[in-house]
Each structure stands twice: as C-alpha cells, then as structure tokens.
Amino acid sequence: MEYNISEILKIIGSGNRSLIGDGNFKISRLLTDSRSLTYPSETLFFALTTQSGDGHRYLRQLYDKGVKSFVVSAVPDDMKSLEDANFIVTDNPLVALHALAGYHRNRFDVPVIAITGSRGKTIVKEWLNSLLQDDIVITRSPRSYNSQIGVPLSVWELNERTQLAIFEAGISMPGEMARLKDIIRPEIGIFTNIGTAHSSGFLSIEDKCREKASLLSDCRCVIYNSDDELISRCMPDVPVKLGWSRIDSTSPLFVEKVESGGGMSRLTFCYLGGEQQTVEIPFANEHDIENAIHCLATMLYLDIPADVIAERMARLTPVGTRLEVIEGVNGCLLIHDSYTSDFNSLSPALDFMRRRAVADRSLTAVISDLSCGEGATDEDYARMAELLAMAGISRLIGVGPELKRHAGCFNLEKEFFDTTEVFLEKMSVRDFNRELILVKGAPRFGFARICELLEARQHETVLEINLDAVVDNFNAFRSRIRPTTGIACMIKASGYGAGSHELARTLQAQGATYLAVAVHDEGAELRRAGITMPILVLNPTVENFHAIFTDRLEPEIYSFDFLEALIREAGHYGVKNFPIHIKIDSGMHRLGFLKEDLPRLIDMLKSTDCVTPRSIFSHLCAADDPMEDDYTKSQFEYFDECCRIVLSAFPGQKILRHILNSTGITRFPDHQLDMVRLGIGLYGIKTLHDGSQDDLRPVSSLHTVILSIKHWPAGTTIGYNRRGVLKRDSVIATVPVGYADGINRHLGYGNACMVVRGVKCPTVGTICMDACMIDVTDVEHVSVGDRVEVFGESIPVDTLAETLGTIPYEVLTSVSSRVKRVYYRE
C-alpha cells in the first residue's frame, strides 16, 4: 500500500520543523537499516538511534542512492537546502515508526494472531501459516521480526489481500510490550512458554511473564500450556482461555497421551469434553510436540474440520530458522537459507548475501518455486526477478516447474530444473567457481542435498558459530559504555578459532570502531575478504612494511627500533601521515614504551610527517583478580600520566586512548576513555562469575556424530594400550573427533563428557588422532548418526578448560582448521 508524505506527516503528528519538498511523494516501503536498501524511490527511512548506532549518519549516503524521504530528529545542515528531499522531523523517530505502523494496522479489519513467549514463536508462526495458507491469505512476520523495530515493519506488510495476520512479539525490557500491543491489536493470542532468556531487565521471571502476557489482555482467546503454573497465573482474564494440558482432563484441550517413536508422535486428545481424537506429527522432540499442540489448539479454536487438521499436521516439516554460511568448492562461499521459500523471506536473504559480496566472486542464486498457499502469481515471479536484479544476482538456478514456467521474467544467466533430483543429476561441482551462492528452497525440495554437493568439507565434525550471539555480546558490552566510546574487537588467532571473515563482516555491520589482529597476514586476509574498516595489527614485524601500507593496516608501535624502521620504509614508499598505535607498558612488562621513553618518542614523531599517532594504549594484566586491584589501579594511574604527556605534545590532534579489556569493561567502566578492546567476552566466555556477565551468550559450539555403536560386557578394554576398562556391561559409541581436530588427549579416560540426546556421556580410553569413544549406555534410543556435543550449550568451554588446567582461549583456538566452520543467523 502507498501513502503520500503529507498523509504520513499528519499520522506521525510532526510539528513545523519538518522540511517537505514534495508532499505528494509516494511511499510504500519503510527502512530502518541503511544497509538493507532495495527500492530507494519508494522508501521512507527512519533515522533511529540505538545501541548499535545512529541512523542520522547515513542520511547523505541514502540520499545519494535515491532515497528522498526521511524521518529524523534533526536535519543535517548540509541537507537543509535539498529541494527534492522530505524531512519529517520528530523528537523520536522510533515512536513515529510505531505511530505509522499502528495507523496502518487500524485500517484492516482482519483477525490477528499474536505469538509471544521465550521459545518457539517463529516455529509456531510458520507451522500455523503452513496449516492455514491453503484456505486463507496470510500476512506474517518475516523470519523472527518481533522487536520494537521488527513488529512495526511486520505490521506494515498488511495489504488489501490479507485475510489473517500472524505476528510475533518479543521483549527484553519492562514497558516494551505495551507499545507492541498498540501496534498489533491481536484477537487471538498464543503464549508458547517462559524461560530465562532476556531476563536481565526484569525483577523476576514472573515479572517478565506478566509483561509478555499483557500483550494478550484484549484478546478474545488466549492459548497456552495450563500445566505451567506460572503462565497460568499470569494469563489475563479474556472471554476464552484455551489452556491445554497433558495432566488435567478438565482442561479445554486435554492431551491424554503422546506416543513417540521412529521420529514421529501420535497425540490422543479431547477438545471441550468431546470425543477422543488423534493426530500424528512427524516429530518426537519435546519442544516440537509443545509447539505442535499450540498449533492444534489454534486450529481447533478456528473450527477447522478434524480430518483437515489430521491431514495437515501429518505433513508438517521442520522450520529452518537459520541462515548458514559455509565454505564451498572451487573458491565458492555458500549461504544456505533453510527458512521458508516465499517472496517476503527472499529479500532478507538477499540482503544477508549482499553484505558478504566481494569483488572477485559473482553472485548466484539457487532458488525453488515460491511457497504460497494460493499459489504464487505471475506478479510474484516478476517481483522476484526485479528483486534478484536489484541485489546484483548474475546467475539464477531455478528448481521447480513454476520457476521454469516463468523463465521469461528473468533477464540474467539462468538455468531451470524440474526437481532437485534432476539438478543433482545434471550439475556437478565443476559448474561452480568463485561464486557467492545463495541456496534457498522450500522444505519439500530438499535443498540440503545441494549444499552437501557444494560444500568444500564433508567432515562430520563441525564448529558452529552463532553470529546472532556475536551481535548480542557486542551489544551487551556496548550497553556498559558511553555512546561516544568506541569498541575495538579482537579477532586475532582466526577469531579465537571461530574464523575471522564472517565475524569481521558482522562486526563491521554492527559499527565496531576497529578490528584488531595479531599479525599482518590476518589483516591482509580480511582485506581480501572485503573488510574495509580500520584494522589494528598488534604484533607487526619489520618484514612486511610494504604490505602494511598497501592493505592499510595500522601497526602497534612497541619499540624505537620498530618505529625507526617503519618511518624509514614509509619515506621510501612516499607514505604520509600513516596511522600508528603507541603501546605503553603500564605493568604487563611484555611490550611497549615506558614513561621515561616518551620524550624521545615524541621527538621522533614530531620530526616526521610519514606517520601520525592514532591511539595510545596499554594492557591490563590482572583486571579479573580483585586481589590485584591496587596493582590495576597503579596501571591506570601510570597510563593516564603517559597519555597526558603524549596528548599535550600534539594539541588539537585526536588521539584515542584505550586500556580496558573485556573484564575491565565490566569492572572498571570509569576508565573506558575513548575506546575499549573487546576480546574473549565477544565470544561469550565469562571472565567473571559474579553474575555481572550473565547476559553473554556462547558463540562457538563443537559438534560431531556417532559413527558406530557396540555392546561390550564388563571387563572389556577399549582403545590404545587397553587403558579404557569397562566396569559394567556398556554401550560404546565411536565418534569422529580426535586430537587432530583439537581434542586434547587429557580429555580421555573419562575426564570429560560429551552430550548425546541430552545425556552426558564420559569418554572411554584414550583420545585417538581422528576419533574417540564415549559411553552411551544411559542414552535411550541412541543410534548411529545421533548428534554429539563436544562443547556448547550443555558443555561450556570453561568446563573443558578447567579439566585441562588451562583457559578457554586455548580450547577455542585449538580447534583444527580441518573442522568445518558453519556460521549462522537465527
């Protein structure tokens, strides 16, 4: 739908500060992230100020790209004279976004389902869409758009065709849900469950539960698990409280029996005291069963016939909510989007892809037929073609008869296959070279097989890196510092073992001030990967000056010898004002200048125009030890004195000061100065265990699979040198991970556990080079192929580090390069 600027001005209620060039200018798209621009001529940009940055910084850039309409809190001086631009000025652009979305919602008299809770919101939403889309046109939240920004952008998608809307709503702070409720105005509410995630802003878990439940207070029906006493206690008083239970036969929906086996479950239930019925679902996991019961309750409330419910629930498919980035064959990079394949989900996937584009890789899209209840229209495929073109896609591989039928819509290199099987038969790895490939298909097309074909490594052991956790950790530390304080993110040692390229792209997008690497080669690789932000090299050597200049890598200066060599080489290459970073030894006694060295250092810097100080910094050596706080205080005092000496020698020049590490950011915020350095905390590893870092999320998790299972009697010996002696009749599994993958041999002999189906299974015998054995006797229904967690959610890296008598850094950086890395967004 379209609005003109004059209409939007009235809706938002902006005063006379606005500068309107053309009140009739038509708007159909809202934008809050400048990097996601697709249709500039139709876009209204909201310049939001958040923990991640300030949208006002990107106004000129967006205008130059064709955006003419903006909602701002102030118009930049250099843009006030633009006669073809529209600036709606308001005190709070986020409040304006909410007001516009709320007005848009009020134009539609359609039923709206709102889903809240701590887990399962996206899956329940997507399953409901799958279950109902054959009968009705549905508008729903893209992916997991459920925040203060995501909800209004979701509601904006309502249009004249919409007959039902399904929106998610999530919160992290008190007071947020009331604003979302005013925008969504739901008639049916679903409360999935309650957990501890995002609880730091609430007084208690009940306080958070009541805040979430407030979304549903004006619904005519709420659906929830009445076996959860806390949720039941927090449910608002509405006309229909459809609580479902597995223990209370008087509940409106009583699930009398759940029989699971062979990857499926049979649910026996009674609804409103009626006859006993059954449905089968192709899942056996408890979370999936819970999500399915929410969907069953919703279908029953909507009076969907029993036979239709049974037929549709039996063909539910897993909802892939992850965008994965995987190294591909022949220099390719794969992006596997296992989310649904409809038009609304394509744009975010292409946006994610575009941010990873580099000059030497062409963009290829492998896409299936669009998945729509009524069937995609000719217009949908025309819009898809337009979207692919605007995203810079140069090659399309379409799978499915509908895409093939609409081949004429696509003006680019293209190939079409009726099925995935035909694609796999006709195509090989030789058909792909130096491409960034988006693989996105509806679940029924089984595109995981295409990814398997194109993956560079097929090793069963995988290090998974959660990029959303990286963002959350970055923002958690950002919230601890002033908005004006910069953050340098440490991604040395290949991102602490996680791999640096994807981390760098993510942090560059989040607005990190600097990236820091240990050696030149690490920085050069980032430049080859398309990273453009400033990069600090902490341990540069005299052999690579030319490369440092060429790649614009800013070196740490830690000695006179190194500085003299750098100045000499800079003069040789004609380099002027190259930024350098002065290291002060305030007490670590590893590298750096002492206070008595500073007069000579200043003289050297003032005598040349080849280099210029960009920052002055030092390292804390005991920030995590309260017993050493006096020493840490002396480091602060020493560093402050050195800073005063250097800064006074360069009046008027901005030289950044930084000394705090991850621990220091938490414990000593008064010393954040101009920038802080975020290291191990970025990866979700707590350096403090007093609760002050409980908001951190683990980033890396190491998983493998069971290769074989054997039953052995008590007394049998397992492994090299017969050192694993079974004390009971046991079931022993072999898993393909060993010391060549980074599993320290000291973790053998039962010193560590791995997790299978939620059960901790101790190691047995020695860790071999490529494999090890674990005791799975206590795991019910264990089978070959089961996923095995080496470390992650159930086995924190800290636990392995304690066992080995080392630190988490060593465990993370020990993961071998032969282990496949998979990066994903949730």
The oligomeric state of the chains shown is single chain
CATH fold description of the largest domain: TIM Barrel
Q: How many discrete domains?
A: 5
CATH architecture of the largest domain: Alpha-Beta Barrel
Please give the alpha-carbon distance between the first and last residues.
29 Å
- Summing up helix and strand content along with how strands pair, one would put the structural category as alpha/beta
C-alpha geometry: globular
Mean of all residue-level pLDDT scores: 92
What would you report as the Rg, rounded to the nearest angstrom? 29 Å
* Number of alpha- plus pi-helical segments: 26
Widest beta sheet: strand line-up? 23-22-21-24-20-19-43-25-34-42-39-40-41-38-35
Percent helix range: 25-40%
- CATH-wise, what's the superfamily of the largest domain? Alanine racemase
User: Largest sheet, described in full?
Assistant: 15 strands, mixed
Number of strands: 43
CATH class of the largest domain: Alpha Beta
Overview of the structural elements:
- With 826 residues, this protein is of the alpha/beta class.
- The chain folds into five domains: 3-96, Udp-n-acetylmuramoylalanyl-d-glutamate--2,6- Diaminopimelate Ligase, Chain: A, domain 1; 108-314, Mur-like, catalytic domain (UDP-N-acetylmuramoyl-L-alanine:D-glutamate ligase, 3-Layer(aba) Sandwich); 323-456, Mur ligase, C-terminal domain (Protein-Tyrosine Phosphatase, Chain A); 465-683, Alanine racemase (TIM Barrel), CATH 3.20.20; 700-825, Beta Barrel (Lyase, Ornithine Decarboxylase, Chain A, domain 1), CATH 2.40.37.
- The protein is built from 26 helices and 43 strands.
- The strands form seven sheets. It has a 15-stranded mixed β-sheet with strand order 23-22-21-24-20-19-43-25-34-42-39-40-41-38-35, with helices on both faces. The chain has a nine-stranded mixed β-sheet with strand order 11-12-10-13-14-15-16-17-18.
- The longest helix is centred in the C-terminal third of the chain and has 21 residues, at 629-649.
- Its EC number is 5.1.1.1.
